[in-house]
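Q: I have 579 residues here and want to know how they pack in 3D. Can you give me a structure?
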Amino acid sequence: MIPRVHARGTRTIGLLHYLYGPGTHEEHIDPHLVAAWDGLAPDPGRNPDATYGDLQRLLDQPVMALPESRRPAEHVWHLSVRAAPEDPILSDEQWGEIARRMVAATGIAPDGDDAACRWAAVRHADDHIHIIATIVREDGRQARLRQDGKRSQAEARKIEIGYGLRRLHSGDGTAAQRPTSAERHKAQREGRERTAREELRETVRRAVAGAPSTDEFFDRLAAAGLLIRKRIAPSGDLLGYKVALPHDRNKGGEPVFYSGSKLAPDLSLPRIRERWTRPADAASANDGSGPEQPALPDVTGPAFARRRATAATWQALLIIDHGDDGTAAAQIAAAGEVLDALAKTSAAHTRAELRKAAFAFERTSRSHVRAARRHDRALRQAARDLVHSGPVLGRGEDGATTAMLIDMAFFLALAAANWHANRHHSQQAAAARQAAEHLRAAYQAAAGEPMAALGQRGRCLAPRIRQRQADLVRQLLPELAERIRAEDGWPALAATLDDARKAGHDPAALLADAARRREFDTAASISDVLVWRLRRSAHLPAVPEGFHEAPARGSRRQGPSVPQTPLTQGTVDHSSRRL
């Protein structure tokens, strides 16, 4: 249940005309009172003899009884209360009781207060009500309405329990503004799954991902087909911007523009510019997160971009676990840019889940902890690399490195969920867990073919080589060796260890390091987890040489042979922290 305190108003009659009127797009159906301060209050919706003026004069009576000099300039209080889409339709009696609880909780009409404010609750749709009140009490004093929004949220949590409704998390004022009922009805009439506000927010976030300057940001918005209006000061300085979808028009045929701040708090121009501000020593800043990754090869292309993003994501994980709050918040915010860029450039078979993951993680990236933006350079550069490397078809090395990056992004989402949960950021933690679920589904789609190819390579190894790798695992992981060798992913791990040896690495050192960095108690397949970690840290090709982009019929692993890591388990492990 979502309560929202609206801005104070000056004209009671104006708000009544809206509540009892047809709505912006004829979305108001059968407007009528469900509760009021007095059971005899007139209802212009159901009583043909009652008028808006009758109800307005009664609501305003305590205000008008004051000398004009003592009347508050903005005396109209307005609260809307909306049920979740999956909640059952409540009766008028139930909505009336909810209204009484809300005015009591917010201070408009406390229980047992005979001198409380006058109020009325109007229902004009199945899923919500509006409460209008005047803030002057019967005794002439003004109501004490401090933290009325916070109090309404707390009462909503109690109402959800009492009525068996979907239980939402308390907000902290950092969420993006929800679409209005008029926007939702408009999207339904036009056959669109999402409102213009939501489409614009996603498009703007993708344009921001990795963008290094204002010019490139606006170039990306234009390339995405958005209409753009810039707000320019007399001095010529750029102050802000608005965007619109070409097909989203008002009744007069004009485009409906939204400013960046109306899409999300972090999409205003000043907040976006914070991402582009770099202190002179930003590149050399030490986060205290451990040794840097080895330099990656000087190559370009989607696979390289995904490897670079995977390395940056690993560093971000360490910072989230061990850095200060501002630095960790910066990593989480920049991780949202990586997900936006990955979704934008992903192959068709992973695109839907990655878009959902990025959409969910958007809420995770904002909290009251101020991000120390100078520490997010690596992730933002990774997002830029992903965008500029272009889209992939999801096969071969590009597809395998996509799976590698999704694997790491999954664990970053869990780390973000734990970080927020430890700071009691309930909405952000829930959004991060939701993003992790979508990333797990995307990983399943991306990892099947490359893991099958690695397994086939491992089964073709000479017996003496397979035995050498088995001895190595038994030596370094004695308690887990038998389990690893019994897993379907063991051949892929054996092939990876052999590839590392041929590339000049010390397989024992790599394996020992990978084992120290992650506990395996909840992993469905330890060997599969190790494969990606080893191939990433040793910069091995994500798929073996000679791997065909279109494998022969029947070569994809089926049934129990599908890679089983924590990403593919039925339940996300929210407590896993170390990788």
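Q: Anything worth noting?
A: Residues 190-277 form one domain. DSSP finds 20 helices and eight strands in the chain.
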